[in-house]
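Researcher: Can you fold this with 3-hydroxybutanoyl-coenzyme A in place?
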Amino acid sequence: MSTIQKVGIIGGGQMGSGIAEVNARAGLDVVVVEVSDAAADAAQHRVQASLDKATSRGKITAAEAAAVVKRVRVTTDLGDLKDRDLVIEAATEIEHIKLEVFAKVGGLLERDDAVLASNTSSIPIVKLGAVSGRSGHVLGVHFFNPAPVMNLVELIPSLTTKQETLDRVRSFVSDTLHKQPIEATDRAGFVVNSLLVPYLLSAIRMYEAGYASAGDIDNGMKLGCGHPMGPLALSDLIGLDTVRAIGISMYDEFKEPLFSPPPLLDRMVDAGLLGKKSGQGFYPYE
Ligand code: 3HC
């Protein structure tokens, strides 16, 4: 049996609620911490909605879904994380917020070997480790959206992560969560976003320049290359604010123009057009 049984998730947004579901479906006891009662209710609702979808698709039974829901407790108190074996931070992709969270949570974990992980896609893990006061037990554990469906998890040790922490989390991901881990260096974007984000930004530039309609750009990649969804629909799914934030972090790190968000993306984010989660991005959503 894995030494990781009690899991904490910080942030119950799209990624946090998906990661909570993945852990609860693996039989683990899960605590999700949100910033307000309203956000906590929304997180609970997201888990339930995803389980309903999984049930309607025949992935799990209604009884299994009900048992999964019981294993997820949503709270607004970070102190509820103190007895956790593993905490995965999935807060907003803003560096100063993540640094504050790591400083607070690093100081309250009771177990010496408790692991504090970040689902960041671009913020340096070494910085999060440094403020936590327990950098040997800090690493990146990056899930993909939608987390209950996508099988990959990137593991990102920093210069100060202990080998035993990485080994323990690798076994946990493959043997308990039944997902495929790959290992990446602590550089903005890791493996997948380094390849994916310039592609998404190129599609947005193409749309902005009037090359083709959104539907034709997306159909081009779906029907011509066999992608499950086109780059503009995928940007909407990820969240345009998140795509922009990742692009900015990668541009800051490498100064590569392809990573720089185009003006249309900036304006859409400023306007609150964030994609699926806000009801409107390149496409409208219910
Ligand atoms: N729980 C369990 N299974 C589910 C589910 C859920 N909540 N939702 C969907 N599924 C299953 C379906 O049953 C189906 O399984 P099957 O093929 O065995 O029948 C499969 O997932 C696909 O479902 P559908 O074809 O019905 O299409 P959906 O509209 O439900 O979902 C999608 C489509 C899975 C989102 C698919 O379009 C896809 O794979 N898109 C690409 C997603 C992607 O690229 N994600 C990575 C983003 S990058 C990222 O996250 C990194 C970050 O840092 C930005």
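Model: Folded with 3-hydroxybutanoyl-coenzyme A in place. Residues 50, 53-54, 57, 59, 121, 144-146, 148-150, 193, 196, 228-229, 234, 238, 242 surround 3-hydroxybutanoyl-coenzyme A (CB under 6 Å).
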